[in-house]
Amino acid sequence: MIAENKDSQTEFRRGQYRHFKGNLYEVIGIVRHSETQEQMVLYRALYGEGGLWVRPYHMFFDFIEREGRRFKRFEYIEA
């Protein structure tokens, strides 16, 4: 499934993502904050106890800068 956030040009795809630090996560879907209606990404760690996490949509798909290099915070790997 591909869905586009109305507030961003970033396309959303369910599947596995690699965090810039190396850990793998499965993105489950898009959810909304009950008070602010902000879109959030719901995802599950594919290591350890496999805990569920939520992160603001714009932050999940944002870029970060480390040691002068620019990275996607989460990189899509596969469905």
Question: Your description of this structure?
Answer:
The protein has 1 helix and 9 strands, in the order E-E-E-E-E-E-H-E-E-E. The protein has 79 residues and is mainly beta. It has one domain: SH3 type barrels, CATH 2.30.30.320. The strands form 3 sheets. It has a 5-stranded antiparallel β-sheet with strand order 6-5-4-3-9. Strands 1-2 form a two-stranded antiparallel ribbon. A two-stranded antiparallel sheet has the order 7-8. The longest helix is centred in the last third of the chain and has 4 residues, at 57-60. The chain is globular.
Our count of domains comes out at 1
Topology, number of strands: 9
Q: How does the helix and strand content classify structurally?
A: mainly beta
Radius of gyration: 13 Å
The low-pLDDT segments are 1-9
The neighbouring-strand order within the major sheet is 6-5-4-3-9
- Report the sheet-strand fraction: over 45%
**What's the total helix number?**
1
**How far is the first residue's CA from the last residue's CA?**
9 Å
Mean pLDDT level: 88
Describe the main β-sheet briefly: 5 strands, antiparallel
Helical percent range? under 10%
Summarize the SSE layout with pairings.
Layout: E1 2-4, E2 11-13, E3 15-19, E4 24-32, E5 39-45, E6 52-56, H1 57-60, E7 63-66, E8 69-72, E9 74-78
Antiparallel strand pairs: 1-2, 3-4, 3-9, 4-5, 5-6, 7-8
Keywords:
two-stranded antiparallel ribbon; globular; 79 residues; single chain; 1 helix; 5-stranded antiparallel sheet; disordered N terminus
What's this model, at a glance?
The protein is built from one helix and nine strands; from the N terminus they run ββββββαβββ.
